[in-house]
Write a structure and sequence with these properties.
Layout lengths: L4 H10 L6 E11 L2 E11 L7 E6 L6 H18 L3 H6 L4 E5 L4 H5 L50 H14 L4 E9 L6 E4 L11 H14 L6 E4 L10 H12 L6 E9 L2 H6 L16 H23 L6
Parallel strand pairs: 3-4, 3-5, 5-8, 6-7
Antiparallel strand pairs: 1-2, 2-4, 6-8
Bound molecules: zinc ion.
Zinc ion binds next to loops.
Length: 320
């Protein structure tokens, strides 16, 4: 199978030669005689203790727009590195790490799940609290033929999920402060910035830092459009990878004050569909903006957010 559009863009980025940029194939998904790499980028300082911004997308293969936002940002960043000496100096003291497409086979075959029919965002070994489940949507083990399938009980995590967890352990767990954003689309009318937990309404242990970061976002970008809330407020899920990664990070850093704030940006696709109902008939139309002005606006809007989070990450001492 030839590279599809997003994988081609990722491969092009791996060709950029710059001593501040490294790319690695961290895993490979083989299916039906085809083979798809999971490619990660690390940008800036090689010191994993430096503050780090993590950008992730493509957990769900249908949600192409998230991968596009991350690739738009990385493409712009790589171009900027060729002329902006201030940025080059800045990146000697901090880092940006990214996996723009975590589920490449899902995207290649136009499906939400990975090739085994597993919804990767339901795949971590972690259950949501009793009584909080929504039938199927919260994750289930009934059949891989149904959406939101978690995988078989007691089995190791899927290769893509494990690759993400391993990458976060290597690249983020020893960082003095890390902020991550995982880009999704498909739920609601608004763009939501979710913080953990997805599994429980119990207070998130880093709620104070979330509030502080929200305050500086509100003050710095007063016209931003994000609804900031715990994911639990929208729906609960079992097996959320970011709940799992956050809890692992807490255990790993029990004696340190190191912090990770994993955000999920859920781009509200219903507004795209409402304004352009016919797009539901196009491939991926429910999850992605189709009209070009709407696509451009989506890219512009979230690049501004990433820039803000990059500055907040490297200046974490001011708000942590
Ligand atoms: Zn998603």
């Amino acid at each position: 199978m030839k590279d599809f559009h997003e994988l081609k863009l990722i491969r092009e980025l791996t060709q950029v030669k710059d001593d501040l940029i490294q790319s690695h194939e961290i895993e490979r998904v083989n299916i039906n005689g085809n083979s798809f790499p999971i490619i990660a980028f690390t940008i800036g300082s090689h010191d994993v203790e430096k503050p780090t911004l993590g950008l992730f997308a493509g957990v769900h293969g249908l949600e192409r727009v998230g991968t596009h936002v991350v690739l738009t940002y990385l493409t712009s960043l790589f171009k900027q590195l060729s002329w902006d000496q201030d940025l080059r100096r800045t990146l000697k003291d901090c880092r940006i790490v990214s996996i723009p497409l975590i589920n490449p086979a899902g995207m290649a075959y136009h499906q939400r799940s990975n090739p085994n029919g597993v919804d990767l965002m339901r795949n971590a070994p972690i259950d949501c609290e009793d009584g909080a489940q929504t039938f199927l949507v919260s994750g289930h083990r009934i059949s891989s033929k149904l959406p939101w399938y978690r995988g078989e009980e007691g089995q190791p995590m899927e290769l893509e999920s494990q690759a993400l967890v391993n990458f976060c352990k290597d690249q983020l767990f020893d960082s003095a402060a890390a902020i991550t954003v995982d880009f999704h689309s498909g739920f609601g009318m608004k763009d939501r910035l979710w913080f953990p937990y997805a599994k429980t309404s119990q207070p998130f242990p880093r709620i104070k830092q979330v509030q502080n970061l929200k305050n500086i976002l509100d003050e710095t970008l007063p016209h931003h459009i994000y609804k900031i809330e715990p994911q639990y407020d929208s729906y609960t899920i079992s097996g959320d990878l970011w709940d799992y990664i956050f809890d692992l990070h807490m255990k790993h850093n029990i004696k340190t004050k190191k912090m990770i704030l994993p955000w999920t940006l859920e781009m509200g696709s219903w507004i795209w569909v409402k304004k352009n109902p016919f797009q539901v008939f196009s491939s991926g139309g429910f999850f992605n903006p189709i009209k070009s002005h709407r696509y451009d606006r989506t890219m512009r809007r979230h690049i501004l957010l990433i820039d803000f989070l990059f500055r907040a990450t490297r200046n974490y001492q001011a708000w942590i």
